[in-house]
Amino acid sequence: MIDTLNPRTPPSTTATPFSDYRDLDARTLEEIITSVKDRLGRSLLVLGHHYQQDEVIRHADLTGDSLKLSQLAGRNRVCQAIVFCGVHFMAETADILSAPEVSVHLPDRAAGCSMADMADVESVETAWAELAQHLDVDQITPVTYINSSAALKSFCGRHGGIVCTSSNARKILDWALGRRPRVLFFPDQHLGRNTAKAMGIALDRMAVWDPREPLGGNTGASIQDHQILLWKGHCSVHQMFKPGHIDQFRRLEPSGKVLVHPECMMEVVDAADLVGSTEFIINTIDQAEPCSSWGVGTELHLVNRLAKRHPDKSIRFLSPMVCMCSTMYRIDPPHLAWCLANLERGTPINRIQVDAETARWARVALDRMLELG
Ligand code: SF4
């Protein structure tokens, strides 16, 4: 039974189950979400990632990429609870950066990130120990993309490492290589390779580290020659774009421009006209000339939203296949309504809380990045 539409229902100590919300029609869910938001006012902050579906993102108080949202969460001095319509690592980062009295909730705990899961901290600790048998690990800076678990950020904090985003990866790699001669970059090999290549680092100075192979698939001798070790991880969404999709777009739109995210493979990035983070992609399209034509290689919901927002421009999704973030898609109106209703009832669900020690070191790695601007 749902009592959210009837605030006079006496307080309960038991959370209402998700099954109460799963089959509700769209109108009722909309009513629950908007009415709870109205009643909770500024004590509640709903954050929506750009890749989120329209039915969810329209309820967000703030939208952005993962870092922007976490920073906004950290700066908010009014809210008591944050509902993060994103994926697990984003909610963890918001918990680390927000005030201790603020609770962070993820409407569906199963909303993870397949890329972040490719570098679990146990495998990273094993890799570090293996590397220590062949190299001086004090001469390696671990760099993690923000799309990673709090435990991995904490590992970086403890080992003199740092966090990066797709906007600042170059600046962060510059910083890291200015301090120590080698970098271990995780979890996304493509962002690491594309960034290092753009900095002029030759491909033969980079090696892939496959955590399923002894010494990451390298030899003790070969590992000495490499400056950048790229963890073998990828984004299942951006990995689906292929150079052939760009050829196809160029045949259809010879004067069009191709704009892709740096999580795409190197061959796609090399063939594109422009490469940049989610915020860069949005700004580029927002500022593009009317009647201009674009092939965009990033998450489907975002591209569709950009196309709707700019009917005066031709905006095509680069792939003929559906490339959407299926884990983020788990946050749907029933989960959002369930989460908000239980928050209001005083029976909060799905709180994401990083333990104090992990948060302390993860914060060190995040602060190193934030201090670089
Ligand atoms: S789009 Fe890729 S990197 Fe981003 S949350 Fe989804 S799986 Fe993770």
Helix and strand composition category = alpha/beta
CATH-derived topology of the largest domain: Rossmann fold
Mean pLDDT: 94
The major β-sheet equals: 5 strands, parallel
SSE order in H/E notation? Answer: HHEHEHEHEHHEHEHEHEEHEHEHEHEHH
Tell me what portion of residues adopts beta-strand conformation: 5-15%
Total discrete domains? 3
Distance between the termini: 49 Å
- Highest CATH level, the class of the largest domain: Alpha Beta
Report the bound ligands by name, code or SMILES.
iron/sulfur cluster
Shape: globular
What share of the residues lie within helices? 40-55%
Q: Segments where pLDDT lies below 50 for 5+ residues?
A: 1-8
Walk me through this protein's architecture.
With 373 residues, the chain is of the alpha/beta class. It has three domains: 19-112 and 328-354, Rossmann fold, CATH 3.40.50; 116-234, Rossmann fold (3-Layer(aba) Sandwich), CATH 3.40.50; 238-317, NadA-like (Rossmann fold, 3-Layer(aba) Sandwich). It is 41% helix and 14% strand. The protein is built from 16 helices and 13 strands. It has helices at 19-22, 26-40, 54-57, 66-75, 88-97, 114-117, 121-132, 150-158, 169-179, 189-198, 243-252, 266-271, 278-287, 300-309, 333-345, 356-371; strands at 44-49, 62-64, 81-85, 103-105, 140-145, 162-164, 182-186, 206-209, 228-231, 257-260, 274-275, 293-297, 314-317. Helix 4 (66-75) runs parallel beside helix 5 (88-97) and helix 8 crosses helix 16 (356-371). The longest helix has 16 residues, at 356-371. The termini are far apart. Mean pLDDT is 94; it is low at 1-8. Iron/sulfur cluster (SF4) binds at residues 51, 87, 113-115, 147, 235-237, 299, 325, 327-328.
